[in-house]
Design goal:
globular, lipid metabolism, about 325 residues, binds NADP nicotinamide-adenine-dinucleotide phosphate, 3-dehydrosphinganine reductase, single chain, Rossmann fold
Length: about 325
């Protein structure tokens, strides 16, 4: 079981670690999901699918969210893929008070052992036109999508550094790669995760800790169903072009990319194109990846112009239709 694998780096005190410092012992990096996992947002959607995959691999999983009833329901569902003792729940608002988050994570570690794998999946989207969204929504999006990840990561990072081992995932969004109509508050909070991820990766790589930044497309989850209710027509039409994916497929891709130690995790053809065209100064994972980015970036920039033309045309057509409808009234 997972915690047997969590013994490796305990005795290492040096501030800068050697790669594979667990020398000879099997470590988290050999099978990233087989350790003690903490999945924020694990009571629903993508987070729940990730928790199921981790349990299937024998990991001990702590799922974190606010609503206790939904957590208990998810715990039963998730543990049906493994054993009851593999899943524990933590109810805390990750966006609110860091001390509370730290306390609840410490408690989780006291029963399941060190957190070696943190998946920051808690988040939500409130779409709407910029001037129609309450100002408080902009703060709320930053709190839920950005500060939750800051709090959770801060709660585990010292432990990971002292053990020279750990994996961290930030679940951003395709809306964290390009700004789209109706996503002024959401996109900004997901773009913020990228800045955090790039800077943090540079700080933690000497400690043998890897970070993966995932950019899911539209995914068929309870959160997506809720988001659909408030989406402007333009946002629906534009985001539909990438298709709708299942949470199982998205979770599997995030898992595979994380196990391979990739910095970016993208899903689908559009996702792959976006990851290449927006790679910028991001950390590189392999020579192959850098060559692929260098060769495709120029071409994909040209392709992006066609997409942008189509999106702008959609926005104009929606405006013209609304104008015509209001004249006919
Ligand atoms: N679904 C999509 O189309 C899509 C696309 C791109 C990116 N994403 C991103 O993927 C992640 C998961 O999305 P999803 O669609 O699976 O969402 P979901 O079904 O709504 O699940 C969200 C989870 O986050 C938890 N959560 C929300 N706010 C929290 C807070 N303040 N503190 C603790 N837990 C909190 C929720 O539980 P409680 O409400 O009980 O706290 C729930 O477990 C999000 O970050 C989302 O932005 C989703």
């Amino acid at each position: 079981m997972a915690n047997i694998l969590s013994v490796s780096c305990k005795t290492i005190q040096a501030p800068v670690c050697r790669k594979n410092s667990s020398a000879g012992k099997r470590s988290c990096h050999d099978d990233a999901f087989s350790c003690s996992n903490e999945v924020t947002g694990g009571s629903s959607g993508i987070g729940k699918s990730l928790a199921i995959l981790a349990v299937k691999r024998g990991a001990k999983v702590t799922i974190v969210a606010r609503n206790k009833d939904r957590l208990v329901e998810a715990q039963n569902d998730i543990s049906s893929h493994g054993a009851k003792e593999q899943v524990q729940i933590v109810s805390v608002d990750l966006s609110a008070d860091f001390e509370e988050v730290q306390k609840s994570f410490n408690k989780a570690e006291s029963t399941f052992g060190h957190i070696q794998f943190l998946i920051n999946c808690a988040g939500s989207s409130i779409p709407g036109r910029f001037e129609e969204l309450p100002i408080s929504t902009f703060q709320k999006m930053m709190d839920i999508n950005y500060m939750s990840a800051v709090h959770a990561t801060r709660a585990v990072i010292a432990g990971m550094k002292s053990r020279c081992e750990g994996r961290i995932v930030f679940v951003s969004s395709q809306a964290g790669q390009l700004g789209l109509y109706g996503y002024t508050s959401y996109s900004a909070s997901k773009f913020a995760l990228r800045g955090l991820a790039e800077a943090l990766q540079m700080e933690i790589s000497p400690y043998n800790i890897r970070l993966t930044l995932a950019f899911p497309p539209d995914t068929n989850t309870p959160g997506f169903a809720e988001e659909q209710k408030g989406k402007p027509e333009e946002t629906k039409l534009i985001s539909e072009t990438s298709g709708l994916f299942s949470p199982e497929k998205v979770a599997q891709t995030i898992l595979d990319d994380t196990v391979r130690g990739r910095f970016f995790s993208s899903i689908g053809l559009d996702g792959w194109m976006l990851a290449n065209v927006t790679c910028g100064f991001s950390p590189s994972t392999s020579v192959m990846e850098v060559m692929q980015q260098s060769l495709t970036m120029g071409l994909f920039r040209i392709v992006s112009i066609f997409y942008l033309y189509h999106f702008d045309k959609t926005v104009k057509e929606c405006k013209l239709r609304r104008n015509a409808e209001s004249k006919n009234r």
